[in-house]
Amino acid sequence: MNIEGVLVPVVTPFNANGSVDYSALATVLDSLIEAGVSGIVACGTTGEYYTFSDEERRNVMAFIADKVAGRALLIAGVNDLYTGGSIAKAEQAKELGYQGLMLAPPIYCLPQQSEIISHYQSVSAAVDMPIIMYNFPARSGVEISVESVIELSRDKNIIGMKESSGDFSRALTLINANLENFTMVCGSDDQSADYLFWGVRSWIGGAANYLPKQHVQMIESAKAGDFDNVRNIMRQIMPVIQNMESADYNQKAKLGLAHIGIEVGEVRAPLQAISNEDKAAFIDALKLALV
What's this model's pTM, rounded to 2 decimal places? Predict the structure, then answer.
Protein backbone atom coordinates (compact mmCIF):
# COMPACT_ATOMS: atom_id res chain seq x y z
CA MET A 1 0.00 0.00 0.00
CA ASN A 2 1.33 3.41 -1.00
CA ILE A 3 1.16 5.88 1.90
CA GLU A 4 2.99 8.71 0.14
CA GLY A 5 1.51 12.18 0.57
CA VAL A 6 -0.46 13.95 3.29
CA LEU A 7 -2.68 11.78 5.46
CA VAL A 8 -4.92 13.76 7.80
CA PRO A 9 -6.03 12.57 11.25
CA VAL A 10 -9.40 14.24 10.87
CA VAL A 11 -11.09 16.05 13.73
CA THR A 12 -14.50 14.96 14.99
CA PRO A 13 -16.95 17.89 14.99
CA PHE A 14 -19.42 18.07 17.86
CA ASN A 15 -22.76 19.85 18.17
CA ALA A 16 -23.50 22.13 21.12
CA ASN A 17 -25.17 19.20 22.91
CA GLY A 18 -22.01 17.11 22.54
CA SER A 19 -23.25 14.78 19.81
CA VAL A 20 -21.26 14.15 16.62
CA ASP A 21 -21.94 16.76 13.94
CA TYR A 22 -21.96 14.63 10.81
CA SER A 23 -22.80 17.53 8.50
CA ALA A 24 -19.67 19.39 9.63
CA LEU A 25 -17.62 16.19 9.36
CA ALA A 26 -18.73 15.83 5.75
CA THR A 27 -17.65 19.41 5.06
CA VAL A 28 -14.23 18.82 6.61
CA LEU A 29 -13.70 15.62 4.61
CA ASP A 30 -14.70 17.29 1.33
CA SER A 31 -12.40 20.25 1.99
CA LEU A 32 -9.44 17.97 2.69
CA ILE A 33 -9.96 15.83 -0.38
CA GLU A 34 -10.46 18.89 -2.59
CA ALA A 35 -7.13 20.22 -1.27
CA GLY A 36 -5.40 17.10 -2.57
CA VAL A 37 -4.62 15.08 0.55
CA SER A 38 -3.78 11.44 -0.08
CA GLY A 39 -5.55 9.88 2.87
CA ILE A 40 -7.83 10.25 5.86
CA VAL A 41 -7.02 8.80 9.26
CA ALA A 42 -10.19 8.06 11.21
CA CYS A 43 -10.12 7.79 15.01
CA GLY A 44 -6.68 9.31 15.42
CA THR A 45 -5.75 11.39 18.45
CA THR A 46 -6.89 14.58 16.73
CA GLY A 47 -10.27 12.91 16.23
CA GLU A 48 -10.76 12.48 20.01
CA TYR A 49 -11.47 8.77 19.52
CA TYR A 50 -10.90 8.13 23.22
CA THR A 51 -14.15 9.94 24.02
CA PHE A 52 -16.33 7.69 21.83
CA SER A 53 -18.77 5.07 22.95
CA ASP A 54 -18.61 1.82 20.99
CA GLU A 55 -21.67 2.87 19.00
CA GLU A 56 -20.26 6.31 18.24
CA ARG A 57 -16.98 4.82 17.09
CA ARG A 58 -18.68 2.50 14.63
CA ASN A 59 -20.97 5.25 13.35
CA VAL A 60 -18.10 7.71 12.84
CA MET A 61 -15.93 5.07 11.15
CA ALA A 62 -18.79 4.04 8.86
CA PHE A 63 -19.66 7.63 7.98
CA ILE A 64 -16.07 8.50 7.07
CA ALA A 65 -15.72 5.35 4.95
CA ASP A 66 -18.95 6.10 3.12
CA LYS A 67 -18.17 9.78 2.61
CA VAL A 68 -14.61 9.26 1.38
CA ALA A 69 -15.79 6.45 -0.90
CA GLY A 70 -12.55 5.78 -2.78
CA ARG A 71 -11.51 9.41 -3.10
CA ALA A 72 -8.61 8.98 -0.66
CA LEU A 73 -6.84 6.24 1.26
CA LEU A 74 -8.69 5.18 4.40
CA ILE A 75 -6.62 4.50 7.52
CA ALA A 76 -8.17 3.55 10.86
CA GLY A 77 -6.62 4.33 14.21
CA VAL A 78 -7.02 1.18 16.32
CA ASN A 79 -5.31 2.04 19.59
CA ASP A 80 -6.51 0.30 22.73
CA LEU A 81 -5.36 -0.55 26.23
CA TYR A 82 -4.69 -4.17 25.29
CA THR A 83 -3.96 -6.27 22.24
CA GLY A 84 -7.38 -7.91 22.02
CA GLY A 85 -9.02 -4.50 21.95
CA SER A 86 -6.86 -3.36 19.04
CA ILE A 87 -7.63 -6.57 17.17
CA ALA A 88 -11.37 -6.02 17.62
CA LYS A 89 -11.09 -2.44 16.37
CA ALA A 90 -8.96 -3.56 13.43
CA GLU A 91 -11.50 -6.23 12.48
CA GLN A 92 -14.23 -3.58 12.56
CA ALA A 93 -12.15 -1.30 10.31
CA LYS A 94 -11.60 -4.13 7.86
CA GLU A 95 -15.32 -4.87 7.77
CA LEU A 96 -16.06 -1.21 7.04
CA GLY A 97 -13.66 -1.09 4.09
CA TYR A 98 -10.60 0.61 5.56
CA GLN A 99 -7.38 -0.13 3.71
CA GLY A 100 -4.88 0.24 6.51
CA LEU A 101 -4.40 0.69 10.24
CA MET A 102 -2.46 3.05 12.48
CA LEU A 103 -1.42 1.55 15.79
CA ALA A 104 0.57 2.71 18.81
CA PRO A 105 1.75 0.47 21.65
CA PRO A 106 -0.93 -0.03 24.32
CA ILE A 107 -0.98 2.91 26.71
CA TYR A 108 -0.74 2.77 30.50
CA CYS A 109 0.57 -0.80 30.84
CA LEU A 110 4.14 0.24 29.80
CA PRO A 111 5.02 -2.90 27.82
CA GLN A 112 8.61 -4.09 27.41
CA GLN A 113 10.08 -4.21 23.89
CA SER A 114 9.39 -7.93 23.51
CA GLU A 115 5.77 -7.23 24.45
CA ILE A 116 5.53 -4.34 21.98
CA ILE A 117 6.81 -6.64 19.24
CA SER A 118 4.29 -9.32 20.21
CA HIS A 119 1.49 -6.74 20.24
CA TYR A 120 2.12 -5.70 16.66
CA GLN A 121 2.72 -9.22 15.40
CA SER A 122 -0.51 -10.40 17.02
CA VAL A 123 -2.59 -7.67 15.37
CA SER A 124 -0.88 -8.34 12.04
CA ALA A 125 -1.56 -12.07 12.20
CA ALA A 126 -5.16 -11.63 13.32
CA VAL A 127 -6.37 -9.13 10.71
CA ASP A 128 -3.84 -9.34 7.83
CA MET A 129 -3.99 -5.64 6.97
CA PRO A 130 -1.29 -3.01 6.32
CA ILE A 131 -0.20 -1.41 9.60
CA ILE A 132 1.48 1.94 10.19
CA MET A 133 3.14 1.85 13.60
CA TYR A 134 2.85 5.00 15.69
CA ASN A 135 5.75 6.00 17.91
CA PHE A 136 4.65 8.75 20.27
CA PRO A 137 6.17 8.05 23.70
CA ALA A 138 4.78 11.27 25.18
CA ARG A 139 1.30 9.78 24.80
CA SER A 140 1.83 6.01 25.00
CA GLY A 141 4.44 6.12 27.74
CA VAL A 142 6.86 3.85 25.88
CA GLU A 143 9.04 4.13 22.81
CA ILE A 144 9.30 1.56 20.05
CA SER A 145 13.07 1.05 20.03
CA VAL A 146 15.05 1.27 16.81
CA GLU A 147 15.86 -2.42 17.15
CA SER A 148 12.17 -3.27 17.54
CA VAL A 149 11.27 -1.18 14.49
CA ILE A 150 13.85 -3.03 12.41
CA GLU A 151 12.53 -6.40 13.58
CA LEU A 152 8.90 -5.46 13.00
CA SER A 153 9.66 -4.06 9.54
CA ARG A 154 10.18 -7.68 8.44
CA ASP A 155 6.49 -8.42 9.04
CA LYS A 156 4.75 -8.30 5.66
CA ASN A 157 1.86 -6.24 7.02
CA ILE A 158 3.90 -3.62 8.88
CA ILE A 159 4.53 -1.08 6.16
CA GLY A 160 5.75 2.01 7.98
CA MET A 161 5.91 4.11 11.11
CA LYS A 162 4.65 7.54 12.06
CA GLU A 163 7.53 9.00 14.09
CA SER A 164 6.33 11.52 16.66
CA SER A 165 9.06 11.30 19.27
CA GLY A 166 10.54 14.66 18.28
CA ASP A 167 13.99 13.04 18.26
CA PHE A 168 15.16 13.70 14.72
CA SER A 169 18.46 11.86 15.25
CA ARG A 170 16.40 8.74 15.92
CA ALA A 171 14.33 9.43 12.81
CA LEU A 172 17.50 9.80 10.74
CA THR A 173 18.78 6.47 11.97
CA LEU A 174 15.63 4.78 10.72
CA ILE A 175 15.45 6.78 7.48
CA ASN A 176 19.02 5.78 6.65
CA ALA A 177 18.44 2.14 7.60
CA ASN A 178 16.71 1.79 4.20
CA LEU A 179 14.31 -0.82 5.52
CA GLU A 180 12.77 -2.89 2.74
CA ASN A 181 9.10 -2.21 1.92
CA PHE A 182 8.88 0.15 4.89
CA THR A 183 8.03 3.87 4.87
CA MET A 184 9.00 6.41 7.48
CA VAL A 185 6.20 8.91 8.08
CA CYS A 186 6.67 12.40 9.47
CA GLY A 187 4.67 12.73 12.68
CA SER A 188 6.41 15.77 14.13
CA ASP A 189 4.86 18.69 12.30
CA ASP A 190 7.53 21.21 13.28
CA GLN A 191 10.20 18.94 11.73
CA SER A 192 8.37 18.26 8.48
CA ALA A 193 10.83 20.13 6.26
CA ASP A 194 13.69 18.15 7.78
CA TYR A 195 11.91 14.89 6.98
CA LEU A 196 11.29 16.06 3.42
CA PHE A 197 14.93 17.07 2.94
CA TRP A 198 15.91 13.51 3.91
CA GLY A 199 13.60 11.88 1.40
CA VAL A 200 10.48 11.18 3.44
CA ARG A 201 7.35 11.73 1.35
CA SER A 202 4.63 10.75 3.81
CA TRP A 203 3.23 13.05 6.50
CA ILE A 204 0.47 12.46 9.05
CA GLY A 205 -0.21 15.80 10.73
CA GLY A 206 -3.13 17.32 12.63
CA ALA A 207 -2.45 20.85 11.38
CA ALA A 208 -3.39 19.61 7.90
CA ASN A 209 -7.02 19.80 9.04
CA TYR A 210 -6.87 23.56 8.50
CA LEU A 211 -3.69 23.92 6.37
CA PRO A 212 -4.15 21.08 3.86
CA LYS A 213 -3.03 23.00 0.79
CA GLN A 214 0.21 24.07 2.44
CA HIS A 215 0.95 20.50 3.54
CA VAL A 216 0.26 19.15 0.05
CA GLN A 217 2.36 21.91 -1.56
CA MET A 218 5.31 21.01 0.67
CA ILE A 219 5.14 17.35 -0.33
CA GLU A 220 4.74 18.18 -4.02
CA SER A 221 7.61 20.69 -3.92
CA ALA A 222 9.87 18.10 -2.29
CA LYS A 223 8.94 15.54 -4.93
CA ALA A 224 9.85 18.10 -7.61
CA GLY A 225 13.15 18.92 -5.90
CA ASP A 226 12.06 22.50 -5.19
CA PHE A 227 13.43 22.80 -1.68
CA ASP A 228 13.44 26.59 -1.82
CA ASN A 229 9.65 26.38 -1.88
CA VAL A 230 9.66 23.79 0.90
CA ARG A 231 11.63 26.24 3.02
CA ASN A 232 9.39 29.16 2.10
CA ILE A 233 6.20 27.34 3.03
CA MET A 234 7.72 25.97 6.22
CA ARG A 235 8.91 29.43 7.23
CA GLN A 236 5.36 30.71 6.77
CA ILE A 237 3.54 27.97 8.68
CA MET A 238 6.16 27.32 11.37
CA PRO A 239 4.82 29.85 13.92
CA VAL A 240 1.33 28.33 13.98
CA ILE A 241 2.67 24.78 14.01
CA GLN A 242 4.97 25.58 16.93
CA ASN A 243 2.08 27.22 18.75
CA MET A 244 -0.11 24.16 18.17
CA GLU A 245 2.63 21.75 19.24
CA SER A 246 3.26 23.70 22.45
CA ALA A 247 -0.09 22.79 24.08
CA ASP A 248 -3.82 22.25 23.42
CA TYR A 249 -3.28 20.45 20.12
CA ASN A 250 -6.86 19.27 19.63
CA GLN A 251 -8.41 22.57 20.63
CA LYS A 252 -6.23 24.41 18.15
CA ALA A 253 -7.02 22.02 15.32
CA LYS A 254 -10.67 22.94 15.80
CA LEU A 255 -9.91 26.64 16.20
CA GLY A 256 -7.98 26.53 12.94
CA LEU A 257 -10.95 25.04 11.11
CA ALA A 258 -13.32 27.61 12.60
CA HIS A 259 -10.99 30.40 11.46
CA ILE A 260 -11.14 29.20 7.85
CA GLY A 261 -14.93 29.00 8.00
CA ILE A 262 -15.67 25.41 9.03
CA GLU A 263 -17.33 25.31 12.45
CA VAL A 264 -16.62 22.02 14.23
CA GLY A 265 -17.60 22.82 17.81
CA GLU A 266 -15.62 22.33 20.98
CA VAL A 267 -13.55 19.46 22.32
CA ARG A 268 -14.98 16.87 24.71
CA ALA A 269 -14.09 16.51 28.37
CA PRO A 270 -11.67 16.09 29.93
CA LEU A 271 -10.29 18.63 27.44
CA GLN A 272 -11.65 22.15 27.74
CA ALA A 273 -11.77 25.29 25.65
CA ILE A 274 -8.63 27.39 25.92
CA SER A 275 -8.40 30.95 27.19
CA ASN A 276 -9.16 33.94 25.01
CA GLU A 277 -5.52 34.98 25.33
CA ASP A 278 -4.29 31.62 24.02
CA LYS A 279 -6.89 31.68 21.25
CA ALA A 280 -5.71 35.11 20.13
CA ALA A 281 -2.05 34.04 20.06
CA PHE A 282 -2.91 30.98 17.99
CA ILE A 283 -5.08 32.92 15.53
CA ASP A 284 -2.37 35.57 15.11
CA ALA A 285 0.09 32.83 14.17
CA LEU A 286 -2.44 31.21 11.87
CA LYS A 287 -3.06 34.48 10.03
CA LEU A 288 0.65 34.60 9.17
CA ALA A 289 0.38 31.09 7.71
CA LEU A 290 -2.58 32.05 5.55
CA VAL A 291 -1.08 35.21 4.03
Answer: 0.96
Percent of the chain with pLDDT over 90: 100
Whole-angstrom distance, CA of residue 183 vs CA of residue 126:
22
Evaluate whether 74 touches 130 at the Cβ level (below 8 Å): no
Q: How far is CA 273 from the centre of its chain?
A: 22
pLDDT number for residue 291: 86
261 pLDDT more than 90: yes
Stretch (H or E) spanning 114: helix 113-127
**Which class is domain 5-225?**
alpha beta
Q: Which of 70, 46, 42, 67 is nearest to 56 (CA)?
A: 42
Q: Where are the domains of the chain?
A: 5-225
Alpha-carbon span 215 to 166, nearest angstrom:
19
Q: How far apart are CA 75 and CA 132, in angstroms?
A: 9
Helices 276-289 and 227-246: crossing angle in degrees, nearest 10, is 180
Question: CB under 8 Å to 217, separation ≥6 — which residues?
Answer: 229, 233
pLDDT tens figures, 275-288: 999 999 999 999 99
